[in-house]
Amino acid sequence: MTVVGADSIIAGRYLVRRPLGTGGMADVVAADDLETGQLVAVKLMRDPLADGAFDRRMLQELLSTAQVIHPNLVGVLDFGIVAHTGRPFFVMELLQGEDLSFHLAREGSCAADWIIPLFCDALDGLHAVHATGIVHKDIKPANLFLDTKPGLPCRLRITDFGIARHMQRAQITQDGGLACTPRYTAPEYLATGTVTPASDVYQMGLVLAEALLGWPMVAEGAFPEVMKAHAQGLLRLPAGIATSPVGQILRRALARHAIERYLQASEFAAALRELDLEAASASIELHAALHRRAMTAQP
């Protein structure tokens, strides 16, 4: 399925202006909302859903998520199915900036005194949605957006809330297997398919650790190896950092068993806000340098 062309109209309302990106599951375009005049982003899923996948529960949860207004969330403004193709679409605010995966690919890592406050605010947004009973389940660098609107401070915003989990549920229905991003998936989901707010805490911990240190906590590899790393706590968090305050917070967020983690995103944020950011920066820089030196020294 190709990207929808410029000047096409989606659902009789969204006039496509330009492509914004494409991925394995969806195409994203900038479009004019012909009813409001607003420039929006439309995420058009590549494949039509199987019968029954776009069900009442999905609609209810999308509506619940859309009703949560928070500056660190990118909510769904509208959603539906393109009649002649059966492709689901989701309409969201058009953002300015880049997602965290692009930022890390270019910069390698983030300064603690910059990224930790941004994460705290994003965790506040996550807590607001958890309060409605909704769990994201697919938090990863590509779903965290550094919003850099002119004249406003940078904000880290969570995207694809109310989309990722439901689209993955449809994929599970169609393919009979787990649909997730294994390197950023909580152990309990990989083991039993269970997700709770603590699962999102785990994923936020993985992303924060990667942003601070400059490498993913789970090495890329075959699914069994990735699953083993999560299940057995074989994360690439330097052992020496565990004694520092920032290391202790990360270790708790990344505990193998959900009950041992921060059970709420707000608890994770509160712990991070207690940190001495200058000391945290020094600890991270030291242990990241020692880890890289050790990796370089290996034959």
From TrEMBL:
It comes from the Bacteria. SUPFAM superfamilies: Protein kinase-like (PK-like) (SSF56112). ATP binds at K43. Transmembrane segments: none annotated. SMART domains: S_TKc. CDD domains: STKc_PknB_like. Keywords: ATP-binding, Kinase, Nucleotide-binding, Serine/threonine-protein kinase, Transferase. One of its GO terms (molecular function) is ATP binding. InterPro entries: Kinase-like_dom_sf (IPR011009), Prot_kinase_dom (IPR000719), Protein_kinase_ATP_BS (IPR017441), Ser/Thr_kinase_AS (IPR008271). Residues 14-290 form the Protein kinase domain. This is Serine/threonine protein kinase. The lineage of its organism: Bacteria, Pseudomonadati, Pseudomonadota, Betaproteobacteria, Burkholderiales.
